[in-house]
Predict the 3D structure of the following.
Amino acid sequence: MKIYLKINGGKILKKIRAKLGRLGLSHSARESKPLIRKLIRKVKRHINFFALYFLLIFLASAQLVQAFPFLPKKGPGSVEVPIIMYHLITKNSKYQGKYGISIAEMENDLAYLRENGYETVIMSDLIEFVYSGRALPEKPVMLTFDDGYSSDLRYLLPLLAKYKMKAVTSIVGKYVEESVSDSNGTINPYLTWAQIKELHDSGLVEIQNHSFDLHGRHGSGKRGGELAEAYQARLSADLAKCQESVKKNIGVTPTAYTYPLGIISKGSKAVLVSLGFKASLSCSEGMNIIEENNPDCLFSLRRNIRKSGSPLSRVLGSI
């Protein structure tokens, strides 16, 4: 910048004088030259300041990448996949908020995805991409629904069929076991095994494990004072029970574990791997970088919650 100003200083002076003349502020060469040179010095100071500012930003970014290698970095053979987290779909405005959205909001989300070129994927798609290189869509997005609410069948499935999209539903085994038939006309809050089978058989909903009975205060995390071996044994027994229940009633074995409340403890991944899980879903927000031949990238996948009143366009734009 200094070299440029030195070489082209005369031209710059002429341009500034011409500009001042057009503004009715013309001076003689002797009067205007000190004024203009003072102006140029100020401009140079600002240019130097901003050059230094952006240089520091660049160096800081480089240092962050080196210091925090776990930050997502897209490279060859990798795909960015945003994952959206939903819970309840309901007509009742009382339950619309952080964990519930209206039917209209759900349909608007699917319409937005279609209009903007997104294609929905499920866990098996990500697993196939990582393990065998099977191609993913150009703009993939995953829609996940936690807890296994009956609204997945009542409202979600018809919308998925209408828009030709897919989703992932993670069920809590105990909730399903305690869900009763709605032959008396009441609406169950949670899915029954028969309803889950209907979702699976549609080919539009993938069923995953959300624990059998760990959707409580501590989630699937380690409890205070609990020894590592005891924790892993307890976690393993619960997850295995849910796996067996899904296999028995649906005929498939879940490939991913969705952490209740997003609580993850040291040693949990080893349990998942020992049980045959290929992936896990967290509640941490952000973008996912899915890489070929890198099975580790499938664990603790980030998800971005879709709250009522917060359009999907805003959620995706914030990732």
